[in-house]
Amino acid sequence: MKFISYGAAQQVTGSMHLLELENGFKVLVDCGLDYETKKKSLTDNNRFFDFDIHSIDVVILSHAHIDHSGNLPNLIKQGYEGQILCTAPTYDFCSHLLMDSVNVQISELNKNNSKGKRRKPKATNASDLLYTQKDVMETMRRMVTFDFHKEVELAEGINFTFVPAGHILGAASILFSVVENGKETRFGFTGDLGRRDANLVVNPEPMERIDYLVCESTYGGKLHLDTESPEEILMKHIQTTCIDKRGRLIIPAFSVGRTQAIIYSLHKLYKEGRFNNINVYVDSPLAIESTGIYSKYHAYLNDDAREFLRTNGSLFDFPLLFEVENMRESEALINNYDPCIIVSAAGMVEGGRIVEHVYNNLQNPQSAILIAGYCAEGTLGWQLKQPDPYVTIRGKQIPKYCEISSTDIFSSHPGHQMLMDYVHQYKPESLKKVFLVHGEQKSLDAFQGALSKDGYNVEITEKEKIYKV
Ligand SMILES: [Zn+2]
Fold this sequence. Notes:
Blueprint: E1 2-7, E2 16-20, E3 26-29, H1 42-46, E4 58-60, H2 66-69, H3 72-77, E5 84-86, H4 88-114, H5 133-142, E6 143-145, E7 152-155, E8 158-164, E9 172-180, E10 183-189, E11 212-216, H6 230-244, E12 248-252, H7 258-271, E13 279-283, H8 285-296, H9 303-312, E14 321-323, H10 327-334, E15 340-344, H11 354-361, E16 368-371, H12 380-385, E17 390-393, E18 396-399, E19 403-406, H13 416-424, E20 433-437, H14 441-453, E21 458-460, E22 467-468
Parallel strand pairs: 3-4, 4-5, 5-6, 10-11, 11-20, 12-15, 12-16, 13-14, 13-15, 16-19, 20-21
Antiparallel strand pairs: 1-2, 1-22, 2-3, 7-8, 8-9, 9-10, 17-18
Helix pairs in contact: 4-5, 4-8, 6-7
Bound molecules: zinc ion (ZN).
């Protein structure tokens, strides 16, 4: 059997890996968008595949995040004719995320078309997009869902099983059992792992008796430093900003996973009577749709969340929570100066409605911005975290008068120690090799160093290199 990475090799985004059996059967694991390869645009980064699309027999999707799923409609558009296998929550998230991805592409193209020109931007051509809504609809038609822990035969000699990975609802590790020449090889992909005891989602489970592991490395070498619970951390910020200063607490958060974890914590605090008379606004259409999916698939939640749901009838709804439905409501919120909490996307403040909220609160010393997760270098979220007294938004230098802080507590990835603990569940003498993917070079090096010290045979996966296993 051969293993080849076509994405998320020595970088974080664009997850795309291939397993090829001796008899030629090919499985593609994930098909995500690459945001890092430095070409002209997102479309140029992702338009072409470095393998023969028609030779792929089946695609298996670990979870819905766009850096794992976002290029599937392009794969279909270019002629892939097979199925896409995933869990049921992943299917539901994808139907919203992939449509949103089309809208993001359209608005980026419009922005680029009108750059530096006074005249009306030219209309967006379907051929300028990576894919259209029609391709997304066809992608959704090809998706077939499977539960966790059920071994499924893909073809003679190859079975797979979805194993809970935590991370976001329905996220799976993928375990392959391949029998070639009368000998079984067990090959496991972690997908993106979650952290232990996270809000809402289950803990990541190890895959049984594996020979090879392809492991995500996002936080390799980086420790999560928060020691308090998510609720205590949030409450401190609510107390200082909303209660003591009567100001507004702005929380940039990803629509799928992060927003739901934050709203769940706020609901718990409200139930405990820790805050009152402070409205909470969720200003992200995608987050609102994703929140419904968490409630729909309650069987996939962790015990704590299921118990909370049984007792309270809802995970997220409480009288102080308001969903901001449209741009008019979002603009009205900007002009309302009552103390409140605003949770809005995107998490790295690289677009979406959050940019308006940041822009309108940066110069207000009563307001605060709480960055609730990883922000890639160069993004506005990253700029906000720097000690520099100014940030540049829309070409203007804006002074930072509001308080800006950050927390990793809502990160949906494990920190370095939790990653090490995860791999330690497999004995170094029984694991033939650990392939590291999905990490910046620094993280990959640190993770490789730490695992090698513990006796594991570790390789930082190179893009398009063929590994015979
Ligand atoms: Zn993910």
